[in-house]
Design brief:
By secondary structure, this protein is mainly α. About 65% of the residues lie in helices and about 5% in strands. It contains 10 helices and 2 strands, in the order ααααααααααββ. It is globular and about 65 Å long.
Length: about 220
């Protein structure tokens, strides 16, 4: 009986958590479905399939709206456990804090803005001969730019000196690969974090989390 009640309580809490972040888990469910489809294609067919849904230079020039939407719904491999954890830790936490509409605004700004920032670097590299012309048609899918933008805006949800520790860790997470790899995706992650950081005004009226007393503090308005 005790175990049964505990199981029911766990299911209820899980349901309540998922229901409190609908955008996060609808998106995650879509990724489960699309990954199931993609991973059943032969490797060469899967690459061609994903290229048609990629936010590369060729598609951003010819059909930007379609690929900006479709690219966020596909990934390059079986990373569903990883995405489940990251969506829950980053997206769901942020959506519960910000509300779905503000969360969606930052997601869209991060996904679109970082895509164009990273592909601008690709275009510059092609024009200077620094990178191959083949990158015009590179595979570029997934929700990582949106995730990094949300990770950036979460800086504004942390109180006191803890936010600077968080920013240092986040900066290292995206900055080291960008410096070491000189990769357009890594550069896009840096751009996405900067976009999220720039969204502070969007969340200035929301409470902040203080890890020390483990409670939410009322957001302070600068100058008051």
């Amino acid at each position: 009986m005790g175990a049964g009640r505990k199981g029911v309580r766990t299911l209820r809490r899980t349901h309540d958590w998922v229901a409190s972040a609908p955008g996060t888990y609808i998106w995650l469910l879509a990724l489960y479905a699309t990954t199931f489809v993609a991973m059943r294609l032969p490797a060469d067919d899967r690459t061609a399939f994903l290229k048609r849904r990629s936010t590369n230079l060729a598609h951003l020039h010819d059909d930007p709206l379609r690929v900006l939407l479709s690219s966020a719904l596909w990934t390059q491999g079986e990373h569903l456990i990883k995405f489940t954890v990251i969506f829950t830790v980053v997206f769901a936490v942020a959506e519960r804090w910000m509300g779905t509409w503000r969360w969606l605004a930052v997601v869209a700004l991060g996904h679109v803005g970082a895509t164009y920032a990273s592909q601008s670097l690709v275009l510059a590299g092609i024009r200077t001969g620094a990178v191959s012309e083949r990158l015009r048609h590179a595979v570029d899918v997934g929700p990582s730019y949106a995730l990094m933008a949300i990770a950036g805006v979460l800086f504004h949800g942390i109180a006191g000196p803890w936010r600077w520790l968080y920013l240092a860790v986040l900066g290292g997470y995206v900055g080291v690969p960008a410096y070491a790899a000189h990769d357009f995706t890594a550069a896009g992650h840096v751009a996405a974090v900067l976009i999220g950081l720039a969204c502070g005004q969007l969340v200035r009226d929301l409470p902040r989390w203080n890890p020390a007393p483990r409670r939410l503090l009322s957001a302070t308005i600068p100058g008051k």
